[in-house]
Specification:
The chain is α/β, with parallel strands linked by helices. It is about 60% helix and about 10% strand.
Length: about 425
């Protein structure tokens, strides 16, 4: 008799339901989100045939949390079902749109009873990959936080202090440059910038890490900062200067978090056996490779074919067809973190691989726009990566971008 379990999770408790192959409710329970609650859950499962050799599959609406981690550690197959899918399954059992936690647990158990083959269990990744995923995602979040903090500071400075924006307009990092942050720390307003001593500017530039052309850079900054410009009223400018210092502190914290997390992520990633294969690809640095591994994992049974991996990453197109209408477009439902990493990888590969650059140019010549061509390049490289990880071999440019061989018919013609 097939038995399935559904768990409707909450912050401090979880509703559990166990059903059999005929949709009969065998047992239900509300457990707390702690060790005793987990033991109660195991006892309920054991009462209905759960054994180490034949564990009961479990459906839940999240892939994170202590309960999920403990269930996965115990060797059980856990299915993370999208809440939107659960809402549609709920309509199969009732048309009144009533909802309760117990009812949702029953719905989750019935999803596995009827459509288990249409859903993927959580992958059996190693502990090392799970740790890399935590750090890589945290580092990526820190980068996004840093970008938001930079944009907020830049928007604020435009309202009263355009001189500092002009001073670092030619820098690739703009306000993220250490020199820019050092100058803002000692002169958060136009009034203070106009009174800066040359020695103080030189010291700030030196402490920011510059080692060459220090005197020339000091003269350039003083010239820009001392120019006559439009000003806010004195009291308003002072108040805005205090706000700048607060925004600058947030930016400094975000920059430090990015650097610290990047360091530990790279160190942990290099310990993984797949790191050597992943970094052999053009355009994949250590940090980008860590983000990639964090999202695809090291459970090689998770994606049976490269096509499955491409769909998960959102690089493979999707077809919408109805009657005489047929439309092929890019995927909107995807792993957004993996898709963002793929854009960086494809862009970096343009200059690191002649084969990748030629493939990109061919796509542009056929009419693809910039992002469509990059996405197509990422799609191809992702298939190559899947093959190399399965066969345990490094990237080879000559094989990956081998020119098409002429057919025998062409030769006889």
């Amino acid at each position: 008799m097939q038995v399935t379990c559904g768990i409707d999770w909450a912050e401090d408790h979880h509703d559990v339901a166990v059903v059999d192959s005929d949709a009969r409710l065998l047992g239900k329970l509300r457990v707390t989100d702690d060790a005793s609650g987990f033991q109660d859950l195991l006892h309920l499962l054991a009462e209905h045939g759960d054994t180490p050799d034949d564990p009961i599959p479990i459906a839940i609406e999240t892939s994170r949390g202590l309960m999920v981690a403990c269930l996965r550690a115990s060797g059980r197959r856990v299915f993370a079902i999208n809440p939107m899918a659960v809402a549609r399954y709920r309509d199969r059992h009732t048309v009144s749109r009533k909802k309760s936690d117990h009812q949702d647990a029953v719905v989750l158990a019935n999803i596995l009873r009827t459509d288990a083959e249409l859903h993927r269990p959580l992958p059996g990744d190693s502990e090392l990959v799970k740790a890399i995923a935590v750090l890589a995602r945290a580092q990526q979040d820190a980068v996004w936080d840093r970008t938001r903090a930079h944009n907020r500071l830049r928007s604020h400075l435009r309202e009263y202090y355009p001189a500092v924006l002009e001073a670092f307009a030619d820098k690739r990092e703009r306000l993220l440059a250490r020199e820019a942050r050092a100058i803002l720390a000692i002169a958060p307003t136009q009034a203070e910038a106009a009174k800066l001593a040359r020695s103080k500017v030189r010291a700030a530039v030196t402490q920011a890490g510059r080692q060459r052309r220090i005197e020339a850079e000091t003269d350039r900054l003083l010239k820009v900062l001392r120019q006559s410009r439009l000003r806010q009223p004195a009291l308003v400018e002072t108040a805005m200067g205090h706000q700048t210092l607060a925004l600058l502190a947030q930016l400094e914290a975000a920059c430090k978090a990015c650097d610290d997390l990047a360091s530990v992520t790279e160190e942990l990633f290099l310990q993984h056996p797949d790191a050597e294969i992943i970094t052999s690809f053009p355009g994949l640095a250590v940090l980008t490779g860590a983000r990639l591994l964090a999202e695809i994992g090291d459970d090689r049974t998770r994606f049976d074919t490269a096509r499955d991996l491409k769909a998960y990453a959102g690089s493979a197109p999707v077809t919408r067809e109805s009657g005489k209408s047929r439309r092929v477009s890019h995927r909107r439902i995807k792993n957004s973190r993996l898709a963002a990493t793929g854009r960086h990888w494809a862009f970096a590969a343009l200059t690191a691989s002649s084969g990748a650059h030629d493939h990109y140019n061919r796509r542009r010549e056929t009419g693809d726009r910039y992002y469509a061509a990059l996405r197509n390049l990422f799609n191809r490289m992702l298939g190559q990566l899947h093959h190399c990880l399965i066969t345990r071999q490094k990237f080879d440019e000559a094989i990956a971008y081998r020119p098409p061989q002429p057919s025998p018919l062409d030769a006889t013609a």
